[in-house]
Amino acid sequence: MTSYENLSTQKEKATTLSLSTFVSSTHAGKSSVSRNLQLDKFIFKKFLAEEIGSNPITISADQNILLIQFCIKGCSNFNNSAQRKPAIFKQAEYNILYLPKKETTTIINTEDCDLVHVYLGEKFFLQYLSRDYGVPMYNLFGIGKLFQSNLYLTPKLKSILADIEACDFGGNLKNLYTKAKIIEVLSLQLAQYEEEKIIPSTLKAVEVEKMILVRELIESDLSSSPSISSLARAAGTNEQYLKKHFKLLFGSTVFGYMISCKMEKAKEMLLTGKYRITEISEVVGYKHATHFTNAFKKFFGYLPQTLKATKIFFGTYLSVGFELEAMEILMMV
Known about the structure:
This protein has about 325 residues and is α+β, with helices and mostly antiparallel strands. The chain is built from 13 helices and 14 strands.
């Protein structure tokens, strides 16, 4: 599991966050693994299926905290006293959840479930999510989750989570970088919520399922570029409905989403420093590296070679845009 824990200050008492998981043991079946973490403003943590399987995760804290739960794959059920009924997460869904102080939250997952958790102090969260913003804050403190329906994990959000996990800064620099990324995540979530509010309630569940299938088909093989007609046939719909419903549900055209997935995957591979441009172009479906380079520059505004060469501080990569700007701003806060 990966954990980024920010240092508590002398001015503010840190929240004690207790995490418990059950792991398999060859000698005694299942054993509980508990850990107390000090949460001042935020913690980033990843739970992999290979580590926890279908074993439950229990969480409690001595102060109110917020949890952004990203269900990367598999399914997850979230239960605590703030929830009128269990919050169910399917693959590639997320939401912001309320964890009342001194209450125990239980999360039960399928065996193939990978989760990413971002724990936020209540004061930190409210600092960036004003109550007079368009988000229904009464949902959070009433039914226990900010968004009435879970939102879908976009390629951009996946990329940011990968950036946080890959960061190898140390100490305060890691905290600063992670803080900038978490603020970016919150901004994108609010923007996505604003877009998805306009989705008509007449979009039937079966139509949503078809669009989710199309999204999964796109994400499962980035080396190909399936046509609209082939995707429509695979989902059991027609091209007109596919274009219309996909844009309503995910806020992007089918082609736009496909390009976004390819480019975010390419960026993720570039940031590892392990792949050549030609290798990356093949993975994301470009026969010629020059075509990939042009597409990457059009999407991000800079060449992939620029990102590959921008390795600064302690071997960590920062992209040319938001990250450096955000760090400069946060230096002044």
